[in-house]
Each structure stands twice: as structure tokens, then as C-alpha cells.
Amino acid sequence: MKSSAKPFLEVGIIVGTHGLRGDLKIRPLPTGDIALKDAEQVFIRAGAEHFIPHQIVRTAWHKKHFLLRLDGLQSVEAVRSFVGQSLWMSRESLPDLPDSHYYWHQLEGLEVVDCQYGTLGYVAGMFSTAAHDILEIVTPDSEILIPAVAEFIVKIDEQNGQLIVQLPEGLVPKDDLKP
């Protein structure tokens, strides 16, 4: 599997504050909920390559969001300026995942091969919906959106850098598929 040289992984977006004690409301990005669950430290980006570390003193799950309280920032006034910024974690600090589970950055760039139609393109992005995560596949001619669900994903071939899928009839327009 391709390993990224980037030392940080974006795990969430700070969408607001919560209460008066400086809790930040975080909308987790794909796999960010797993990473944030037991995190001890996060980073807030301050410029293109500068990340400021913050120790977490409290984490809670609240209505599809994480609430984080950062050490030394225990008032709403102290954290209000963070709203709208991205939350990052060191890749080295990410918790191990069970077998057959992957962080988004581990799938990025994989070649996508359909069992019937062959190579479709490569994984260029991922986003979450209320139902499930969606893989963005860039093809030579277009973009394909594939739900990241077990029914469509046959296997991840780490050695060959491939994501093997079996797409149902009609998910992708026939013009985009070349048998």
C-alpha cells in the first residue's frame, strides 16, 4: 500500500463551540471518529506547513459530533477563533485498526479494479454521508462515486496497490465502463 510522506492526517473540522468551558464541536472526517476517540493530542493548522499541538483534556461524543476540550483553553472566548479550522493528528499517533479496516489515507491513490470491467481509475477522495462513506474514483474521462460498503468492496490488495470492487449493474453509467 502506498504510504504517504505527510506526517499529519486531517481528522475533523471545528464547526462550533459548545457551552462556556471552551469545548470545541468537531465534525469528524472519514475515519476521524476512530482516530479522535482516544486521542491525547491534536494539531490546529496555522499556515501551510505549521501545525500547533494541543493536549486534549476531555473528549465526548455529542449528536454526531465530537466535543474536545483543550488544555489551557477553558473558556468559549479562548477557542472561538478556531471555528472553521481543520483538526489534525500525527499519523504516528493514530490507533491501530482491526484487520480489514483502513484509514482514508491508506486508500488514497489505490488503483480501482472492477471484477467485470477491469481498471476504472484511482481513489482520489472520500467523504461521508448520513448512510456511509463514499469513495471518489477519478477515471480518464470522469469521476465515479462508489459507496464504501462491504457489498461492493471485494478486497484491498496492498501488495499491488489495488482496491478490487464488484459494482452492481447501473451504479456507473455504461459509457464510463469499458468491458
CATH homologous superfamily identity of the largest domain: RimM
Number of helices: 3
By CATH, the topology of the largest domain is: Elongation Factor Tu (Ef-tu), domain 3
Report, as a whole number of angstroms, the end-to-end distance. Answer: 26 Å
Largest sheet: 6 strands, antiparallel, barrel
Mean pLDDT level: 85
**Uncertain segments:** none
- CATH C-level class of the largest domain: Mainly Beta
Question: Overall 3D geometry?
Answer: elongated
* SSE ordering: EEHEEEHEHEEEEEE
Beta-strand content estimate: 35-45%
Taking strands numbered 1, 2, ... along the chain, how are they ordered across the largest sheet?
A: 1-2-5-4-3-6
Q: Evaluate the radius of gyration.
A: 19 Å
**Strand segment tally:** 12
Structural class: mainly beta
Q: Quickly give the CATH architecture of the largest domain.
A: Beta Barrel
Helix content: under 10%
The domain count comes to 2
Word description of this protein:
With 179 residues, this protein is mainly β. It has 2 domains: 8-92, Elongation Factor Tu (Ef-tu), domain 3; 104-165, SH3 type barrels, CATH 2.30.30. Helices cover 8% and strands 45% of the residues. The protein contains 3 helices and 12 strands. It has helices spanning 32-37, 76-79, 104-107; strands at 8-18, 23-28, 41-45, 51-62, 65-70, 86-90, 111-114, 118-128, 133-138, 143-147, 153-157, 162-165. Strand 7 and strand 8 form a beta hairpin. The two termini are 26 Å apart. The model has no long low-confidence stretch (mean pLDDT 85).
